[in-house]
């Protein structure tokens, strides 16, 4: 039975109580004390499990079928299907869910299809590890089947964990997307075909980022740069063959490199034509002359020793000069090499002369191409194999002595043995151990190399201008991220899209066996894609080549498998996920464009970029300036409380599932549930790197608890649905200042929340909501309303006014909190409305502007300042043990010559006169009055505390007198308002014994 029913049935035997015999508990049943089924604390596991289907899957399906709603497309960047979720995953999905839930509340139909990125080396390696096999011992199909099963298993794990976070979506297999799905892969291959048709795909032998640990080429987006990589750099000398300014004696070219292993592939020395170079002579006259850039002479003093300048020569004069290959003494017969001009040469470091190996450096390669020195692939000298090891070809430039290099890793033993050969030929001038920035494979965490291989590339130069133009109408949050993505696009000229792995989408090219040339055009692809669409992607590995050769390429006289072979390269996984935009149209949309994409800041190098490039590159020329997204939102990384990157080795990882479910020791790792984790996400400036640990989580839990307590207070005082149905609400025009002020603050809160949600600033929403709940409600409204809520009659005007406000506060606050803490909002909605339907099916309709009441806010600001002064005095009296409760006191506000201050311009005094009856409620005392000096009387109170506060219009200050209450304590409401001759105060008498 709820308290409303019991209070209405309660009959008070009035004659039993007299002024001489008062039982302080006798009237308890006549009080409207709070009661609610809404618990003080919820069990997160039970609550969220019970509400999950209602507020996640069922809700998503319900709103997705309402075609009358305007559509909002949120395109999900697919997480990698490899292992349990980390905190970055949790932040990412929660941020997306906050946006989607807000859109649903505002009446839009959200399309959000969760996806997974499923190809790539980590999944392949995990599958092989679980099988206890290596790639060489299994067939391509065997590897692919194992990797496919691993990916599906990992997706199921992540899918269950995402649902534990309260992510609204249809999580069935039919409505999610995976890059291993047949339809997805066929769309991807058609986009590849369109890029081929647009002339943007080509195969070239050139240096690429290559990971020996992955045995595959990598894209820039697959690299991480470490600042503490250690290399052994060398200064080496090359002997100049050409004469120079008629200088006599041998002349050496001094070169510095951090990759000594590339010296076996040296094909030129590069200089800048505009730099000035000096010829230096050692003062002992016993060593060859040395050439270095003039600007580097002072910096090279420790390397060169004591020297003097013999001549100064412009770099243009050095161009074309011949020098002897560095290992010529080990390999007689090597032809001389040339000095070439190159724009990338500077005098900022090294010697100003750059060793050029076009097989191992993009700048070297581009310099050679610009000079027309690379007519054929075989003209590039490269001695590195697929495992990053020296091949037997290295002996072509190092002779028999070079056999010590064969099979050695170029990054380890091979590099050291090259240094040994440099010593042997007398070319090593100095070796230095340096710490510098170096690229690593982001998946294996091993260093990579630059080496020449035959790879498939997408030409970005031809579409770069269109891609940049397409970004002009894209909104960025935070706005500074626009520059980051733009810069990455501007810096790219081509994209290496091929990988030497089995687990991936094939690049369906045919190779002509007699010439080993790749044949790929749109007509051939049409034939191949038709076969794959009919028989599945796996058929590329298991089907005979004959089925993939179109009739135009068939030679009736020769077996096709002797003329043609299928390519074994697969596509870059960024190409996979980057084509996910293409599914939007097939999901029933008019355009292949998302309203919003949200990912971590690393995706400016990855998914944000690959989506843009594949969309622009595959479009007809007249539609290339359309981006696949309208808004891009970026979030930072999650660090520990000290600002360190979370790492298992450091033991500072906070798992999202541990936060939700609790750890083995619940005292150390409590079961917070999803809402606490979501609230933390909603409170941080997510566009920056954020911090998380035990203390931060405890603070988030406290924030949720305070909001929950505010809701519980309201639910306990407004009554059940039937009771509220019988209460007449109070219109704004009849409300007191306090109610109008709270409603004004509620209106401002809602407007702030609506604007902040629309601008993706959820921290502002959470901060404003918490402030309203803790300050406006708990510290003020609840505090001053308790007496009236508990002791007034159920249908009294004053109580109905407060209930009117509390009902609206709870309704509006619930809409505001719902996107961030949906389980709490659903629980409140369930209790408040006694319903099993979701809160989110009710559209959030903002308060009318009539509730905006700046005048009430201005007046309350004045009175709250006065309240602060009064409460300070009351606390002093409490500290001196004069009172236990503020109700034991009354307040007198005394202004000098008050009777003479009657000016209507005196706003402060007018306000005090108008709100005099409200002051005792505001101060929570038994009486408060505005008096002049003549009304003080001659009787001195037992004690008094006097202070003053100044206000505009009251220059002499307002005196505050706090004194003992003059009447007796009421046994029912405990205020000191009972006349000595009565049993109860007048208010309580009217309630328990109505006339």
UniProtKB/TrEMBL annotation:
Reactions accelerated catalytically: tRNA(Ile) + L-isoleucine + ATP = L-isoleucyl-tRNA(Ile) + AMP + diphosphate
GO CC terms of this entry: mitochondrion
Subcellular location(s) of the protein: Mitochondrion
Entry keyword annotation includes Lyase: no
Record-linked Gene3D superfamilies: 1.10.730.20, HUPs, Ile-tRNA synthetase CP2 domain-like, Valyl/Leucyl/Isoleucyl-tRNA synthetase, editing domain
The Aminoacyl-tRNA synthetase class Ia domain, residue ranges: 58-689
Gene Ontology terms, MF aspect: aminoacyl-tRNA deacylase activity; ATP binding; isoleucine-tRNA ligase activity; tRNA binding
Top-level division of the source organism's lineage: Eukaryota
Keywords: Aminoacyl-tRNA synthetase, ATP-binding, Ligase, Nucleotide-binding, Protein biosynthesis
NCBIfam families according to UniProt: ileS
PANTHER family given in the database record: ISOLEUCINE--TRNA LIGASE, MITOCHONDRIAL, SOLEUCYL-TRNA SYNTHETASE
The protein, known as: Isoleucine--tRNA ligase, mitochondrial
